[in-house]
Amino acid sequence: MTEDNQKRQIPASSEIEAGQSVAEDLNELMKVRREKLHELANQGIEPYGEKFQRTHYAADIIQHFEAMDGQPAVLAGRIMAKRVMGKASFANLQDSSGNIQIYVRLDELGPEEYACFEKLDIGDIIGCSGKVFRTRKGEITLHIDSYKILSKSLRPLPEKWHGLKDVDLRYRQRYVDLIVNPEVKQAFITRSKVVRSIRNYLDEKGFLEVETPMMHPIAGGASARPFTTYHNTLDMKLYMRIAPELYLKRLLVGGFDKVYEINRNFRNEGISTKHNPEFTTIELYQAYADYEVMMDLTEDLISQVAQEVLGTTTVEYEGVTLCLAKPWRRVPMLEIVKEYSGLDFTQLKDADAAYQAAKKLNLDIEPGASWGDILNVVFEEKVEDKLIQPTFIIDYPVDISPLAKRQKEQPELTYRFELFIYGREMANAFSELNDPIDQKGRFLAQVEKRNAGDDEAQMYDEDYIQALEYGMPPAGGLGIGIDRLVMLLTNSSSIRDVILFPLMRPRD
């Protein structure tokens, strides 16, 4: 261990307490750790080090032990366990790759260095150098000849055998969760691999990654309640992005054929195991394509990502085996609603007839709901949770699809699909509406809904209509929820398990 020439002036815990705010009540364990910090300062030892050059990670040594046996190595990491055995001590060192045992001896370090090592706490971060060997019990170990304190831990980690089990606390203190629950870190490594795999797939297909605004003068591209903000210089109200769709389609007007954005969206809605107010999606648009092309792309993309990241297209989720290998079932909404509810909406020709039939199923239908709204309510209540294996629900009603192209044969329906896996929506796509006159009429219908009190209805975007009037090629568009996809591939029951820092209500 090295010492600085100048002693660092650190007050004892009694002095710290004297100036401590009322909100910070140090417990006894923390007092002891602060006293140790004070002792280090008095010895001229810097407890918060600077740059440290390591040569290996724990996993490197363990995976390549035959080549590393007897060789020097320099590691850095956090002490997770320690056993003092008189003149020799063992500790468990954890770095970003895993854990490895370290071993020190009194006669090699010297009395002062060894005494300091004995006082190290669980959670302290150190750098150490030595040689690799295997103990008589078969444990791969670094026999260290020197070490340096890099960061003194002033708060004790959760109790060794129980870890951090309080779910609420795990989300609030993700940094502690990552330290004591290694499987949590693995979930986020998987998330990173999923995003990288999606990027690679689309890049190879000739898509161009772009960036569009996150602050919009008009909240559009989806039906959702937005967050609002304000720009002082421009003296204008702005909305946090609920979807990038309308900006991405402007790029199709401008001449790009294939674009995508991995984006963060913000929706001022409820919080649950499936919803977080800010979430990540991949949205892509392809000129001269349609929703069938998007279906092919969706099942190919997700199955390939699963194979690349997990090595299989068969995944276990909450005790259910799911097969992500293509092809997937494709079924019209009208057909599957009849299958599970018994209601034939092809015979229920208007909103009143649909309302009367739906009420017999004891469904909560809003007064004044349209035919398409009622069809969607029946689907959500009677069908959605039954869709366990990957299933494309196709041909959604116009009433709930303001940006999708209308079908010629059945003008009350659109060329739209949603993908469901394990009863959850995973993707949404359609043949894009590129008729500016029809689009204007859809926007005006949404405005009527807003005026009637629906604060999730879309706003009228005059500039987008103007863009369409210049001419947008026929196109297919697709959005996939990355958070939900990662939940599926990591067998995570809550969306908070795959978002590093989910929104939480303040404890105060």
TrEMBL record:
One of its GO terms (biological process) is lysyl-tRNA aminoacylation. Its EC number is 6.1.1.6. GO terms for molecular function: ATP binding; catalytic activity, acting on a protein; lysine-tRNA ligase activity; magnesium ion binding; transferase activity; tRNA binding. It is an enzyme of class 6 (ligase). Its cofactor is Mg(2+). It is found in: Cytoplasm. One of its GO terms (cellular component) is cytosol. Mg(2+) 1 binds at E418, E425. Signal peptide: none annotated. Keywords: Aminoacyl-tRNA synthetase, ATP-binding, Cytoplasm, Ligase, Magnesium, Metal-binding, Nucleotide-binding, Protein biosynthesis. Residues 191-506 form the Aminoacyl-transfer RNA synthetases class-II family profile domain. Binds 3 Mg(2+) ions per subunit. Mg(2+) 2 binds at E425. CDD domains: LysRS_core, LysRS_N. Gene3D superfamilies: Bira Bifunctional Protein, Domain 2 (3.30.930.10), Nucleic acid-binding proteins (2.40.50.140). PROSITE patterns: AA_TRNA_LIGASE_II (PS50862). It catalyses: tRNA(Lys) + L-lysine + ATP = L-lysyl-tRNA(Lys) + AMP + diphosphate. It holds the Pfam family tRNA_anti-codon. HAMAP family: Lys_tRNA_synth_class2. Homodimer. Belongs to the class-II aminoacyl-tRNA synthetase family. This is Lysine--tRNA ligase.
